[in-house]
Amino acid sequence: MPANRSPLPRRGLAVLAVLPLLALAACGYGSEAKDVPANQKVASGAKKIDGLDSVKIGYFGNLTHATALVGRQQGLFQKELGATKADYATFNAGPSEIEALNSGSIDIGWIGPSPAINGYTKSGGRSLKIIGGSASGGVKLVVNPKKIKSLKDVKGKRIATPQLGNTQDVAFLNWAAEQGYQIDAQSGKGDVTVVRSDNKVTPDAFKAGSLDGAWVPEPTASKLVAEGGKVLLDESDLWPDKKFVITNVIVSQKFLKAHPKAVEAVLRASVRTNKWIKANPDAAKESANKQLEADSGKALAPAVLDPAWKSIQTTDDPLAATLNTEAGHAVKAGLLAKPDLKGIYDLTLLNKVLGAEGAPKVDAAGLGTD
Q: How is domain 14-138+243-356 classified at the CATH fold level?
């Protein structure tokens, strides 16, 4: 998504590239096997894929990363990887996950479009490939209804976004520009004051009255509603067919070239997880929440979980055309030099998996590997 995504800016954003990697989700085996749920253990007699001891998978502790949360909790990644151990790491920001991918600390990751664009363009197209979709939707503008009663009331107010240049930041700046508001993208000052605030602290700041609203992903949006906020705008309403990419699957190009069978196994698990989520929405919601609790130590309350879950759609389609549009928004906001995204997608293995599952193939919107 889950949230937390940063495109390549022309200035000032490099400092965000080194953010702390959270060691929240190491899945233990061997001496720690007693702590591993039965469905996440290596099956007896299973064989390693590509001779690998492990595949390192990264994701965020957000509901917009539902595929990763549910796939881990249900043991579906481990099932497809056989005797190759599925190792996990969770992140709270896109730049830190890209750093982990570049350093080899993870091999495959669930991440938003903006850090994927950032990582690809910053490396000259050599670091990563987007190999699948994961989620659409789940982003809202939530406001204090006492201070903001209509969209025109946003002018002059303090609106939070998760991070300078992240996907929600870019989306809000683009929306504000379409309203005719003038905002300096770097400082956040102008007709609206943009406050870059970590999703973990935004609900408390909103409750304290230091923020008038926030353009944020789930479950932060529903947490704000639980604190008395009102959904003023659902970003899905701004997109054709109400669909836009919020979470992709990326892989290190080096790992993809060396271990395509392992990548295919993870994609197969992803596709089967999304199929299970759609067939079992209530059980999937509880499974995602259980994994969030395991990762963070705290589950979401039903008042937050239920509306947040309803606003997110899992998808195998990376919705490539919308990623290109989001990149254009970042360019218009002055946060991204016009990028060459040709080749950012390699959907070969995903379409192979989809074909085997009897599902239609997906398209890279002209941005795929020839």
A: D-Maltodextrin-Binding Protein; domain 2 (3.40.190)
